[in-house]
Amino acid sequence: MSTTNPFNPFANVDFSKFDMSKFDITKMMGDVKIPGFDVQAIMDAQRKNIEALNAANQTAVQGMQAVAQRQAEILTQAMNEISAIAQQLSTVGNPQEMSTKQAELARKGFEQALGNARELAEMVSKSNTEAFAIINKRVTESLQELKSLVAK
């Protein structure tokens, strides 16, 4: 018994064996002539859209890598500071001096954590702004291209 789907002629096609390197839509659609429809212009616009998306993604990935690297640096710095703090606290003599020292260290730690969080947030914001600017520029260009196509 056949398992073909009469509503989907591609139901039994194994697309994993399809060689995309031999498939060129510009050649296939290049000979199509529709009055008032510039296939090449549409293909060029889509190519530019994909290039813009790739550039935006690359910018976002680079930004996230920079954030991850900075987080690792912050962690290393924090571990070194914890070691130094432990040594400082081991030399404190009386309980009053210990509580004063702990309060001072807690305050410095809190300020440092806020500064680090602010720095990381600014890095993420900068990366997102740069990626969005790439997309925004392409959308503006795309609208101008569309406007000029419609004017023809």
Choose one word for the global shape: elongated
Low-confidence stretches: none
Describe the biggest sheet? none
Oligomer: single chain
Average pLDDT figure: 84
Number of helices: 3
| Helix and strand run | HHH
Q: Return Rg in Å.
A: 29 Å
Helix content: over 70%
Q: Decide which structural class fits the backbone.
A: mainly alpha
Topology, number of strands: 0
Taken as a percent bin, the fraction of beta residues is under 5%
First-last Cα distance: 55 Å
Write up this protein.
Helices cover 76% and strands 0% of the residues. It is an all-alpha fold and 152 residues long. Helix 2 (39-90) packs antiparallel against helix 3.
